Amino acid sequence: MGYLDFSGILSRSDLFVHGALLTLILSASALVLGTMLGMVGAAMRRSRSRILSGIAMGYVELIRNTPFLVQIYIVYFGLPAVGLRISEMAAAVLSLTLYAGAYLTEIIRAGIDTVGKGQREAALALGLRPHQVFRHVVLVPALSAIYPALTSQFVLIMLASSVVSAISVPELTGVANDIQGQTFRSLEAYLVVAALYLGLTAVFKTAFGAVDRSLFTFRAAER
Fold first, then answer.
1. Residue 66 located in a structural domain
2. CATH number, residue 14
3. What is the pTM of this model?
4. How many domains does the chain have?
5. Apex CA 87: angle with CA 85 and CA 170, to 5°?
6. Alpha helices, DSSP H, located in the chain
7. Neighbours of 197 (CB within 10 A)
8. Which residue from 54, 87, 117, 190 has the least number of CB within 10 angstroms?
């Protein structure tokens, strides 16, 4: 027993594949929903209303300054205490969305702030409607500025999704927990999971980098 033996681990490769797919589904769902929440949060943070701005700031500070595991427990165990029962998957998606939304609020706000007020005023003076100004003058430059941060945040969300195994969601880490309990090969199970996370991270960084070079470089050349 003093050597590495992956035979029992690799024979359950279908479980790792299922766990990896679930990890990607959780991460993608949280990124999409978190981006929507982040856009609302960014708008509130930039609002002239101190109440709206204060609510958004309080939300961001609450999420960013408390452990993600505690947030999951509050959602999964706390909501039933007030009569709202949700499944493990729903709790995982909700927790990840709230977690991602807080960070994306600040990322999106910073991106919008990179577009100078003078540029927006000049576009309005040229006769563009507000939605056209937002789409052509604000959105593309803002996305270009925050794209690296968005891609990094996706990777961080994917890695943070491992914590939802604490509420028995069978993503990659949850699968490893189950397999090591069956095979008593803890080191091998977690080494395989670590390799899968590294592989997924490398693939997505490469893909996001290709999109960055092709899309935003082309946009910059157009301007």
1. yes
2. 1.10.3720.10
3. 0.85
4. 1
5. 155
6. 7-10, 13-45, 50-64, 68-73, 79-81, 88-113, 117-125, 130-132, 140-160, 172-183, 186-211, 217-222
7. 19
8. 117
Tens digit of pLDDT at every position of the chain (223 positions): 458 888 888 889 999 999 999 999 999 999 999 999 998 998 899 888 999 999 999 999 999 999 999 999 999 999 988 888 899 999 999 999 999 999 999 998 888 887 767 776 777 777 777 667 777 677 777 777 888 888 899 999 999 999 999 999 999 999 999 999 888 889 999 999 999 999 999 998 888 888 777 765 545 545 5
186 touches 1 (CB < 8 A): no
As given in the structure block, the two tokens for residue 93 are 């998606």
Question: Which structural domain range is residue 148 located in?
Answer: 7-222
Task: Give the dihedral sign, CA 62/64/67/70.
Answer: positive
2 assigned to some structural domain: no
Is residue 33 in some structural domain? yes
